[in-house]
Design brief:
7-stranded mixed β-sheet; 23% strand; alpha/beta; 210 residues; two-stranded antiparallel ribbon; globular; Spore Coat Polysaccharide Biosynthesis Protein SpsA, Chain A; single chain; 6 helices
Length: 210
């Protein structure tokens, strides 16, 4: 008997950081004449059932796209955004077992991101986190929605609220993605754009990608 393919999960784009090195909220950054968020949406929209953005302040988004604030106060970093994604998924899609989170500053996300993460996650009910070039990308992952209470307790505990620290306490699978060969050199699909110089690098890659 053929095993049914897991349904597409909902997704939340995390844009709650303060973007000090970029000098402005990344949701408003322009890349190749388009807002950065548009590039991320274009990579994800066919892979997920619904999209929302987690932001600490008003941001310009496509019409109809929900903007959700952290469910915990105090700018607690990416973990607060991940918790918010879990709570939002549970509220808006009760059938969702997992929710995808992805950062606002990664415009080259793999087009098979969800399929590969889901294959690892649904094998044994774990969360699945993307990796490349020997590095884990903990903000880009497929998270079990039912971890929300545990994550909330972790955020309220004494430990520094880092994503990798939380992952050490949970069942997790990492999924390695290859770098892309381009005329401009190897491209990590999880390249983060943190500075104006990073934006220039991204422009170079966009000019040579099909």
């Amino acid at each position: 008997m053929t095993t049914p393919k897991p349904r597409h999960p909902p997704a939340v784009i995390l844009a709650g950081g303060q973007s000090r090195r970029m000098g402005q909220n990344k949701a408003g950054v322009m890349l190749s004449g388009r807002p950065l968020i548009d590039h991320v949406i274009a990579r994800l929209v066919a892979q997920v059932s619904a999209l929302a953005i987690n932001a600490a302040e008003p941001v310009a988004v496509p019409p109809g796209m929900p903007v959700i604030a952290d469910t915990v106060p105090g700018q607690r970093g990416p973990l607060a955004g991940i918790l918010t994604a879990m709570r939002y998924a549970a509220e808006t899609d009760p059938d969702a077992s997992h929710v995808l989170t992805a950062p606002i500053d990664s415009p080259f996300l793999p087009l098979d991101l969800v399929d590969r993460l889901a294959a690892a996650a649904h094998a044994d009910g774990a969360s699945a986190i993307a990796a490349s070039a020997g590095a884990l990308h903990p903000v880009c992952g497929l998270w079990r929605v039912d971890l929300a209470d545990r994550l909330q307790a972790f955020l309220e505990g004494p430990e520094e609220p880092r994503v990798k620290a939380f992952l050490k306490t949970q069942m997790m699978r990492s999924v390695d993605f290859p770098q892309l060969d381009t005329p401009a050199g190897p491209l990590d699909p999880f390249l983060n754009l943190n500075t104006p110089a990073d934006l220039e690098r991204a422009e170079t890659f966009l000019r040579v990608l099909p």
